[in-house]
Every structure is written in C-alpha cells, then in structure tokens.
Amino acid sequence: MNKEKILQFLGLATRARKLVTGEELVISEVRRGNAKLVIVAEDASENTRKKLHDKCNSYNVPVRIGASRYEIGHAIGKEARVVLAITDNGFAKKMTSLFDEK
C-alpha cells in the first residue's frame, strides 16, 4: 500500500466530485448502491469499523482501511474525516489496486 499515492488520488477524486464523506452519508450511499469503495481511517473507533464493515458486507461493497483521520482530511481539503466512499467505478478500481499493491 502506497499511502502517498492513495492520499493524492483521494484529492483527485474530491475535485472530480466522486467522493462522499461522513458516516451517515456513506451508509446512505451504500444502501442506494452508489458507493463503489468505502475507506475507513485506521484510527476509527471499533464501533464505527464494525458498523461499516457489516453494512458494506451486506451490500457487497469493498472496504479498505486507510491513513489516519487527519491525513485523509488533509488530502481532501477538509478537517479530520473518519469514513468516505468513492462513487465512481474507475476511481474505485484504481484505489483498490493502490490499496492491494505490495
């Protein structure tokens, strides 16, 4: 996992408006079928992680654990963010490959 590239790509997805942040908005997008990939901060609470993993598993949406909440927030030009969803297939595919590379 190349954290630097992932954070840069998150900024690009934000500028393209293919990103949703906030726990309730992400869960809403997962339910609607719009979320293609969910990213959770590595310092998210255990309760938040479990809630998102369970919801994403039931809707077949992949989940990845990313950088800290402050790094994610900085990458997208906002304050600390714990969870976000990619809503575009192309961005989601590229992000998944960045997370899965060794």
Describe this structure in words.
Helices cover 54% and strands 14% of the residues. With 102 residues, the protein is of the alpha+beta class. The protein has a four-stranded mixed sheet, with helices on both faces. Strand 2 (37-40), helix 3 (46-58) and strand 3 form a beta-alpha-beta unit. The longest helix is centred in the first third of the chain and has 13 residues, at 3-15. It starts with a helix and ends with a helix. The mean pLDDT is 93.
Which key features would you list for this structure?
102 residues, alpha+beta, 4-stranded mixed β-sheet, 5 helices, 4 strands, globular
The portion of residues forming beta strands comes to 5-15%
Mean pLDDT: 93
How widely separated are the two ends?
A: 6 Å
Q: What would the principal axes of the Cα set say about the shape? A: globular
Q: pLDDT below 50 for ≥5 consecutive residues: which ranges?
A: none
Helix-and-strand structural type: alpha+beta
Q: Work out the helix count.
A: 5
- Residues in helices, as a percent range: 40-55%
What's the count of strands? 4
Spell the H/E element sequence.
HEHEHEHEH
Main sheet makeup: 4 strands, mixed
Write out the strand line-up for the largest beta sheet, numbering strands in chain order: 1-4-2-3
Q: Mind telling me the C-alpha Rg? A: 12 Å
Helices and strands, with pairings:
Blueprint: H1 3-15, E1 19-21, H2 23-32, E2 37-40, H3 46-58, E3 63-65, H4 69-75, E4 83-86, H5 89-100
Parallel strand pairs: 2-3
Antiparallel strand pairs: 1-4, 2-4
Helix pairs in contact: 1-5, 2-3
